[in-house]
Amino acid sequence: MDDKVPLVVDLDGTLIKSDLLVESGFAHLGADLSQAFLLFSALRSGGKARLKAEIANAIEIDAAHLPYDARVIELIEQARAEDRPVFLASASNERYVRAVAEHLGLFDGWYGSTAIANLTSKSKTDLLVRAFGVKGFDYIGNDSADLPVWSAARNCIAITSSASVRRKLSVIDGDALVMDRRTGGMAAWMKLLRPHQWAKNALVFVPLLTAHLFNFWSILFSVAAFIAFSAAASSVYIINDLVDIEADRKHPSKKWRPLAAGTVPIFPAIMVALLLAFCALAAGLVIGTSFFVVLAAYLIFTTAYSFFLKRKMMIDIIVLALLYTIRVIGGAEAISVEISEWLLAFSMFIFTSLALIKRYIELATRIDAGLPELSNRNYRKGDLDIVAMLAAAAGFNAVTVFALFVSSDTVRQTYRHPQGLWLVCPLLMYWIGRALMMAHRRLMHHDPIIFALKDWNSLATFGLIGLIMLLSF
Q1: Please, are residues 160 and 14 in contact by the beta-carbon 8 Å criterion?
Q2: Which of 210, 237, 207 has its CA nearest to residue 225?
Q3: Is 6 left (phi over 0), alpha (psi -120 to 50) or beta?
Q4: Mind giving me the DSSP string for 71-97?
Q5: How many beta carbons lie within 10 A of that of residue 23, not counting itself?
Q6: Which residues contact 341 (CB under 8 A, 6 or more apart)?
Q7: Phi and psi for 158 in degrees, rounded to 5?
Q8: What tens digit of pLDDT does each residue of 396-440 get?
Q9: pLDDT tens-digit profile of 441-463?
């Protein structure tokens, strides 16, 4: 046996725990959603090879931040220590393959797809057989497209492969080296779905509380609305993480998100996102047509936000505030009550303030860590002070709206002790001011709402506000 037999390594799903076509495709659409038609035309006219070339020409990858599989790197280094040549062969576009090969500096050569040839399955097999001969190379792969290549390889190595692929590989080579899947497991999936963010969907209960409809059916439909919004939110979080995957890898904390770190595979994540969106909309139909329309609008706006609205200065803030307010509207539609215009106005101002605080925290984090300007937001580090001022202005405008609400005829007709509601105003001023100070002191979580739900001062303030409103009623 020739100990100098080359080792050939696949890229997507093998050397890296991700898929460059999916990553770059979402990044391309995130930068300009209008490119979807052009990409579809490229796919129709030139197949996947042309599609990959179009995306690669538009989107560059940062090979230094890709989630490499340490086990594959170890196998490569072992082969090099044995003085065996090592080659990278991938169905990804040649621009991406070259970038990875040059960054790692571990390969004697590389092969990738061109604008006219998609280097996958049989075409990859034919190329490697021409280069090294049948049984003239060892091969590391991961999925069903690698089965023809393994048939022509001397030694077969499978990494992070599905059970069906492993079974088929055992028929080809009973002595194949199969390395177990190493993903983040259930913990990584839960992190991807972000159940802690579902707390924001508690806003659907606001109309229930303000309308004082504490009957079985109203509570049941409010809970159903909460579940539907939570499923929809998790669906969009996955899509958002796909669009932001490269920016997240360069962020000091977001780089540990499952898709950025490669602890959850991309294709199953996309399937879960679609399933969650479908279940949310199906639940919306059961709750009611009007609620379904509100939920569909939420999904449309959040998807648009993920792809391009978040890159528009101040538009992203207004959209975030609108998304919070839509939850309140959805809660009202779920129990068929008319939502107060005062509540809508208050919601828009308070949530605009919180969205601005969120941007403030992002900018402050980059300043403190010496990171470059945000690549996926239209804000600069020099905007920090103006963002803080806008957040304070919006927050205290919310207090003004609440004060006008307390003075309105609506309150005098609804509450037995309306004068007690004036006590809410100083509590709101305290909480908003404290939130701004905590953000300024870098003591706040990157999401102010999640911070508030874990902060005892905030919870005590909200409890007092609820008690005052209850006693005033």
Answers
A1: yes
A2: 207
A3: beta
A4: HHHHHHHHHHHTT--EEEEEEEEHHHH
A5: 25
A6: none
A7: -115, 135
A8: 999 999 999 888 887 787 788 888 899 999 999 999 999 999 999
A9: 988 877 888 888 888 999 999 99
